[in-house]
Structures are given as structure tokens and as C-alpha cells.
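Lab meeting prep.
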Amino acid sequence: MKESYERFERRVQALADYILEDYGHDRVIDRLEMFTQPDRQIIEDLIGKLLRLVFPGYYRDYTYRIYNPKNNLSALIEDVAFHLNRQIGIALRGSGQVSDVERAAEDITAAFLGKLPEIRAYVETDLQAFYDGDPAASSKAEVIIAYPGLYAITVNRLAHVLFQLNVPLIPRIMTESAHSKTGIDIHPGAQIGRYFFIDHGTGIVVGETTVIGDNVKLYQGVTLGALSTRGGQKLHGVRRHPTIEDNVTIYAGASILGGETVIGHDSVIGSNVFITHPIAPGTRVSIKSQELLYKNGQGFVVQPDVPGDDAEWFYVI
């Protein structure tokens, strides 16, 4: 038994030496220094704290035992400021973008917190859009507590401000955290207007350079993406995602691609359409009724009752 244990110990040590040798190639994945990048767990904890600042009566606070709500929020703001400032400093230091990291991190943290009332004003319009747009919503409180779409939008609005302040990594960590929880993938660089409504949400993708106007509705499976990414990093910073103007509704499964693609205001885009060119304002884009083939158990074709050949169809749950 002892001989077997010692033999296995030698094998494990040899394997450890072999694996450790692999870290000596000076690649990005070989970095061993700790605390040179923002901590994902801390960022995700900050998301929860920021959501309590956006919706103070709806997200429970297990940290502070303060009975005065405003004193509680004051302590929470200080806590967010401290941890966010440290994480921004780490992100800036790792990127090498600025010389005076401490001062830059303080300025960015202060600018971000100063934007919270504006962010909350936008979120209030989103909440109204959800309540007005979904007959299944029994109350606004239900939307705040239970709807993944509002969660994803709120996190994105917070991350977008940090993105505008040129904070590396942290905005993307925030939106990818929301993506993992909701199935809704919105890049923090996307510009989104007021009264934004996402119904169901699963599978929605909104690319970095997308511009979305006011009062826009997206249903599940919608992609606002690039026409092609074969250029790789050569396309960095290039406008490659569509513009969606005001009062547009885009139904389930639609794909709208390309930086030159503009969906004009007051348009309706039907389910499963594929668009790579501009659409004039006030246009309804839809697919004609699909041709379906039905067979019974004996193999005979059964002709169902279907709308006329020119009938339009949309898909909403």
C-alpha cells in the first residue's frame, strides 16, 4: 500500500513539473501575477448592490442592519464607491491607458455615481414599457422582481455608462454576467433609447455598435448583429451593427444585420425575417404563409385550412 502511494506521488509530482513548465512560454494565458485584472466575483457582487440603488425597495440588503432606509442607502453608496474605485483602478492599471491611475479611477467612480439618477430615469421608462407592453404583467413590482428582460436592460444601462467612461473589462464582465443569467446578450457599447421593451428575451443578441431609438420592442431570438466578422480586429471600432429608429417592433427570430442597415421609425419587422438593407419608415416586413406538408398515418397528404397565399404572419407568445 505504501509503495503504491509513493509511486503515485512521484507520478503526480512529475505531472506537476510538466504542467508548470508549460507556463514558461510568455503567452497571455501564462500570466501568473495575481490581482492584475478586475475580480469577476466582486463585479457581480457590485451588480447586486447597484441594483439595490436603482430599485431600493425591491432588492433585499443582507449586509447592513440600519433601520433608517436613507442611512442604509448612504452606507451602500459608500461601499459601492470604495469597491468600484478599486476595481476600476485595477482595470486601468492592467490596460496601461493612463499614468495617474488612482486619480483617474476616482474621477471615473465619481462620474459614474453622478449618473445614477439619470440611469434610474431611463430604467423607469423601461419599466413602464414592460408594463404597458405585456398583458401578462400583473404589476410593475412583478416586472422589477421577476422579469429577466428588465434585469438585463438595467445592468446594460449601468455598464454602458462605464463603457462611455472608457473603463476596460468591467462593463463587459457586467453584461456577460447578465447574459449568463438571462440568455440576453447586449454589448455595453450599444446605444439604447428610452422605453425599451424586451419580451421573453431568450436568445436576443445586440451588438456593440447598435443604435436603438425610443419605444423599441424586441421579442425572443432577435439578432441585431454584424453582416460579417471575417475582418476580425480590422473591424474594431467600425460601425457594423444596425440602427433601429423610434417606435419599431421586431418580432421573434428576426435577424437584422450590418452597419448600413437602418430600420426606419414606426416600422414592424415580422418573425424570422432576415434583413441586410435599410427599411423605410412606416414599413411592415413579413413572411408570407409558409407552405406546410401534412401526412396522416397512411401516408396520404392532408390539406389543412391555411390563410391565403398572400397572408402575412407574425409570431408572438
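Slide two material, second protein:
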Amino acid sequence: MQISEARARYIRWLLATKDLSPHTIRAYDGDLLSLERHLDPPGDIVGLDRESVISFIEIQKANGLSPASLKRRTSSLRGFCRWLVAQDLLAADPWNGANLVLGRPRRLPRTLPAHELDRLIQSLKLAAGVERGDVPDPRLIAKRPHESTTLLAVALMVSTGVRVHEVVGIRCRDIDLPGRAIRLLGKGRRERQVFLTNDWIANLTSAYTEARSVLGLQHLHLLFNLHHDPLTPPAMRSRLAKAAIAAGLTPRVTPHMLRHTAATQLIEAGVDIRYIQRLLGHASLSTTEIYTHVSDRALRRVVSDADVLGRFAQAR
């Protein structure tokens, strides 16, 4: 069997049997396509051996692929090879005995400082016509749907820490306005709830849902684009990048930065890390624990309050 055909069959198998996000599936497919192009010539799957997979990873490292991407690419290839063996398409797993040191460093997440986050929110409010904390009525949102959509999406990501595919995936029926809660379907198809934590975000969400009726939208998704179709993750990333430029922010702002920022703000506010884990939808607490390493402000406050040296000095 040609490797291209095996790759296509494997991706179909992943789609049918694994509960992976579309983003993960695309990443795995891209990883295997890179392997396919590496083999010279691509040819039959039986040519996939230990030497070929090791040389592929070594070339990726030499080309400057990040440790995180290397780890994912290696994971993609290992899964593919295990599947090939299970399907009797390969006699032996090429990864057996292949010891590779990828050296993935644990990077601290990038966050927005509080003053830059405030500038971004204020700029979005101004663009959407929201001034002095007031929430526009549905008719005003219907007149400025692009600006209002971007504002609401960013506000939800900042206040709840949701992922970009989660925020664009919110359906109107998922929103409980009286209870100020939103039901989400996250990674691994795990359901969780996030909350509209103050009057402003609750009122904005309510006005936005009414604006959908004013515009006569028929689809179930909350957020929509200029064509009144459901908003997509790439479109939201583009909107956020442009909004950051409009606000005069220097770093490239991404939806995941807002998620990191939300988590860090909660840590600094003293929220128990187990609650943050539930809010963010992390399967493991160890994933959430990285935020305990980024909050220098909280660390400084706690250490200053303890003032160990000061207590000894006063005792004398």
C-alpha cells in the first residue's frame, strides 16, 4: 500500500474512532504529510523503517522546529506506526528501539498585562458604541454587528478563560441568562459550565441574543460574522489581532493569550487552583499548575505579607 493511501485511511480511522478536535486532526494529517514528503521516493508503506523515522525527526530538529511541535510530530508518527502494525500493514513498529531526546522546555504562557488588557477592552467598547459601562440596546448591536461580536467574544474569553473554538461554538440554547451560566463542550467532548460573572457581561450577552432576532438569524450559534454565518476560529483570531493593533498594543495578541491571562488573573485573585482547573476544562491538574509559576505579583504579595525577616527584627 502506498503511504499516501495509508495516511488517508489512518485519518479516516481517527475521525471515526477518536474524539479529537478538528484542529488536532489537521495537525496530525500535516505531520504525516511531512513524513510522506520526506521519504524519497514516498513509495510503498513497507519502506517505512526505523532509519527513516529517525532521520525525519532529526531533519525537523535541524530545521528549527520547536520542541513542542517536535513532540506532537513524534506522537503523530508513533500513533500512525502503531496503527500500521495493528492493521498488518507493517511487520514491526519502526519506533521500537528508537530513542530520541527532544528536550522540550516547559515554557511559561504569554499573558497580557492588566493595563494592556484594559486598553483592549476599552478600545473594543468604543468601537461597539459602549461608553461608561453602558450596554447598547439590541438595535445598536444590530447596526454594529462586527464590533459588537468582537467585543462579546473577547469579553467571554477574558471572563471565562474559554478556548477560541469553544467561544465560537456557543449555541444560543447553551446560554442560561437567568442563571448566568453557559454550557460548553470542550476537549474530549467534556461538558462544563462557565459563568457570566457581572451585570455588564450578562446584559451584553442578553442584548446580543436579542440582536440576533432583530437581524433574523436562523442558525443556532451565538456569534456570527458580517454575512450572518457562524463565526469561525480563524476569523476570531484575525479579529483579535486587528483589535489589538487598533488598541495600540505591541505584542501579537491571540485567543490563547486571553485564556492564559484569565487564568493568571484568577490565580492572583486567590481562587483555588482546583476551581480554575474546572473552569478551564483541564483534564489534569498538572496542566493548570503552570499558572502558579507565572504570577510573580501574587508571589510578591504573599511573601511581603509574611515578612519573615521583619518578624524577627521586631522581636528584638
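Talking points for slide two:
Residues 181 and 195 are 4 Å apart (CA to CA).
The first strand starts at residue 175 and ends at 176.
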